[in-house]
Design brief:
heterodimer; A: 205 residues; alpha/beta; Rossmann fold; 5 helices; B: 162 residues; alpha+beta; Beta-Lactamase; 3 helices
């Protein structure tokens, strides 16, 4: 849910990075935190277990552009990917404005990706949201590894809904595709919050 | 669970909320008050102007409050209406305002959790009433009334040159 604060001249949105465990959701936020100028980001908070797996969420507030003298702020969250943390995943989705589904491109992780995608749909339903309406993009991560599925096949699995969305190939730990993903989803969220003049294009596919 | 509505806080409502928060601080003896949306976003802040990472605090408080609400539901309760963290010097009290917001107060030994709790309840009711009015107002007015133009609102997140 977007929040407009006329007194502070701010518009805030919430974007959640979703996907199976160890797919690279936290790596996306870490790279953004490392590479955004200080003035565009706040502190990154990570609630992780002893072995660096996300326990509750990672959180990074960023702000970039001004729309008609209002600062647009985006709160980036990740969810814990492990199956047994579903309750916390659901809590993090509360009030979400946009989603990045981070898939692990490796053949042996396809099943976990599919389960996570289904789990996302189920959890969104609890809030009366659905993927036909909410802005989202897909990021196929770990494209530098040898045992990866072709993008065409991943698209066949994850992006064959009536509404096809923008996808990105990425190597999140090195930053490849990270900012393209962020810029696209934040633009989609803005358009969804404001509406767009007729004739202007929302998503590129 | 129903979807959360988008929220627009207009300037006059923002001032009214700030007045309630300042009144709450005066009565309770707490040092700071944060009105936080349950999705984790800070809506208003009243009190001391010390440097405090209120953005992170809001996200964490909303997470903790939702988490306790989930625990409550496991016990068959609707939710726990307050949350209290006691520190050595400072403590935190979080109270439910309505289905969309919570009120966080930071206080020290100059007051008691009882006082904070008493006046937080009063402040929550007052803020809840203002938020209910806010939701009846048009969300995008003035400069924000028109939809985005094609060239408008393209995010400019750029990597810092290494």
């Amino acid at each position: 849910m977007s929040i407009i604060n006329y007194g502070q001249k701010e518009i805030s949105f919430k974007i959640v990075y979703y996907g199976p465990g160890v797919a690279g959701k936290t790596a996306n936020l870490q790279y953004i935190h490392r590479c955004l100028p200080d003035g565009n980001r706040g502190n990154m908070v990570s609630l992780a277990t002893g072995d660096d797996r996300t326990l509750f969420f990672d959180f990074l507030p960023v702000s970039a552009l001004t729309v008609r003298n209002f600062t647009a702020k985006f709160q980036l969250y990740t969810v814990p990917g492990q199956v047994y943390y579903n309750m916390t995943r659901k809590l993090v989705l509360r009030g979400v404005d946009g989603i990045v589904f981070v898939a692990d491109s490796q053949w042996e992780r396809l099943r976990e990706n599919v389960e996570s995608f289904r789990n996302l749909e189920e959890n969104l339903r609890e809030y009366d949201y659905n993927l036909d309406e909410i802005p989202y993009v897909i990021q196929y991560n770990k494209r530098d590894l040898p045992n990866i599925a072709p993008v065409e096949y991943l698209e066949y699995l994850f992006n064959r809904r009536p509404r096809r969305v923008t996808f990105f190939e990425s190597v999140a730990v090195e930053g490849k595709g990270v900012f393209d993903t962020l810029n696209t989803v934040s633009r989609m969220v803005l358009v969804s919050g404001f509406g767009q003049e007729q004739g202007a294009s929302n998503e590129s596919t | 669970m129903s979807p959360l509505e988008n929220l627009a806080i207009h300037e006059e409502d923002s001032q009214r909320i700030n007045q309630v928060l300042l009144h709450f601080l005066g009565e309770s003896g707490a040092m700071e008050a944060l009105l936080i949306d349950r999705s984790g976003q800070l809506l208003a802040r009243g009190g001391a102007s010390r440097s405090l990472d209120t953005v992170s605090l809001s996200a964490l408080a909303a997470g903790a409050f939702s988490s306790t609400a989930a625990m409550a539901r496991l016990l068959g309760e609707t939710e726990f209406t307050m949350l209290f963290h006691q520190g050595i010097k400072e403590s935190i009290h979080v109270a439910a305002v309505d289905e969309q917001a919570i009120l966080l107060a930071i206080f020290d030994s100059r007051t008691t959790v009882g006082m904070v709790r008493l006046f937080a309840k009063e402040a929550s009711t007052a803020v809840g009433a203002i938020l209910a009015e806010t939701r009846t107002r048009p969300q995008r007015t003035g400069a924000l009334a028109a939809p985005l133009g094609k060239e408008e609102g393209h995010p400019t997140f750029r990597e810092r040159p290494v």
